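Z., the sequence and structure:
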Amino acid sequence: MKFGKEFKQQKVPEWTEAYMNYNKLKRILHEIQKFKLCEVPSTPIRTSQQRVSLYKPFSGLEVRSSSEESSSDLEDQVIAVETIQENDHRQVYNTNFLGSPKEGRQSEIMFFEKLDEELNKVNTFYRDKVEEVIGEAASLNKQMNALIALRIKVKQPDTLGKLHMKLYLPVYKINNRHMDANIDIDRINTHENGDFNFTANFVNSGGSRNRTNSDKYESDLLDVLDRVRINNTLESPMSTIRSVLNDSKDRDLCFKQEELKEVEGRLKVVFIEFYRKLHLLKHYSFVNLMAFSKIMKKYEKVALRRAARSYMKIVDDSYIGSSDEVALIMDRVEGTFVKYFARSNRRQGMKLLRPKRRKEKHRITFFSGFFSGCSIALLIAIIFLIQARSVMTTKEHTMYVENVFPLYSLYAYIILHMLLYAANIYFWRRCRINYPFIFGFKQGTELSYQDVFLISMGLSVLALGTFLVHLHMKLESVNSVYTKHIELVPLGLLIVFVAIFFCPLNILYKSSRFFLVRCLLHCICAPLYTVSLADFFLADQLTSQIQAIRCLEFYICYYGMRWYEKEQKCHNLALYNVFYIIVAVIPYWIRFLQCVRRLFEEKEWVHLYNGSRYFLTIIAVVIRTAFELKMDKTWKVLALLCSIAAILFNTYWDIVMDWGLLQRNSKNRFLRDKLAVSRKFVYFVVMVLDVILRLAWLQLVLKFNIRILKGTAISSLFSCLEIIRRGVWMFFRLENEHLNNVGKYRAFKSVPLPFSYYEEDDDKGN
């Protein structure tokens, strides 16, 4: 693989613009190469040097001094790099081309100008990120101080009364285990030249310190605990309720074992995210240095000039090439994490800090193809069975199929949605959209498109196989005494599906299943949970699965009422019709409550407008469903007006707000400045498609006469179209979110710290 492609693959997607623009510099080198080919043939430098070397005696064993080599290299240099010191002690590099006017071609001068711009850009970004990391390290130091004090207070409360302990004492015992309290996290001493000198004291089990420095940073443990409160992250309904009642997001320490366990768990997550940031920052430095080296080698090869050594010396001496702060902090983080969160088990600690990425397995591809073939075969078998037995010609069988169709169509909606999700994952990866970070998946547990496709095909085989067996048994035993038991087959399939979904065993993608369960719980309990992107993204998917939710209602009606009134249809029951409307409103009501929660937390009016959009949709759904049940002209007019208003509002929000398109003064006309898809016509196609699929729902109000489609087939068709529309929306919604993160260089999730420090004077003033 060429370095250009490898360099692109190794970039952090959110930092793409901060990397050295390797392709741009390569294009300039191509211009230099074209100029070389077009100019009058002359004796190249390299050829003349080789010709002269033919007349030299053999000198392979001759030892040359380094001073002779450097002097000969300097004679061949054609550039001089000037270092400019700015007011904030940052260095800016400017390269002067030393060739004569005849030799100094404009393309080469432009090459070094762009090269200097890239070096300055990379250095500035790297320095800013390192300074950010230093600040986070200092904050983590205070968090660890509080954690150590809390551990001592909880596990050995008598110790505090007997000893006047310091945070920087040597080793003491807790529960028969040695534990070092010396956890100063890389004290930063700023020198006159502005450079940062890290004192590596994150973990120092020796306990020896300079007395003058120790006196400066010593602190009484009790004093630390008196100045600390626990941040209430509002991660549970009870914490949210307490926050509303107490009007405070912090709570005082209660010094209980449960509290210590909670703090340790939260701080462990903070360390893991912090270490991941350090790792990517170190990798950023490495790949950029490699890119500068590669591009200078290409320049020497194309321009036939020696400039790589002198320029790479400047690169190595620059901030990104010479600073070792990130490596030092990584060592301290590893030592501290292993000691305090892995009980000094380095293997276990590093496994948590650096989780392995999931490897793609061949058996996933094999079973995906196998289940796909089985699904197609089962579908063909069902069609042939219906045709051979003339199922749709018999009144009894026709009624039975109409009743049993909603029981199995539930799985069709789910499978279609999963197939679209698998396709989205495939295109997200191709467009380098960091969907695991956006959704907040735990590193190494995110599903690939092969995994999602395998799950959908496995569910398809299970549903189609059950339906084929059920239909065959029903046709063979019309007058059998086992007819009622045969009708339990769909219920058994649902029980199996639910059991697999909630299975607590570590099989069948447990982490992904439980992540989905947690998001479902957050949606159901809205607005008691803080709304994350994964939560409202799932709630938006549920708004396109209303027909599937109604199928669950039909399950309750079919198995709860049918035993007593066999010929009674569910739609003839008043209670069923009431819940038929309620279940259609639930997903939109969840999104409305989520918007209300975000409005109170983020104080942004955009969430009010978004919530009003869902409230308008609720009104439209209620009136439209009432029209479906009553078929009254008055309800038809109201349903038509409300549906058109909701469609216009939702279409505008999809295109402008969710997708970020139709921006004014954009360099891409009617689109936006940044696009993940290279072909612009795709965006215009999906905008038109979104409008058409939104308008398709008017068929349920206008009731066009479609001869091919009868009964529930019409609503099922438009439900599938809505799922397809949501699948298209899914890709561009996440693309817009990714580009927003790219614009702000957000490559890491924000993890709230467990402790908050406050000053006593501030408390007295309040």
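The first strand starts at residue 79 and ends at 85. The chain has a mean pLDDT of 79.

Let me know what you think.
H.
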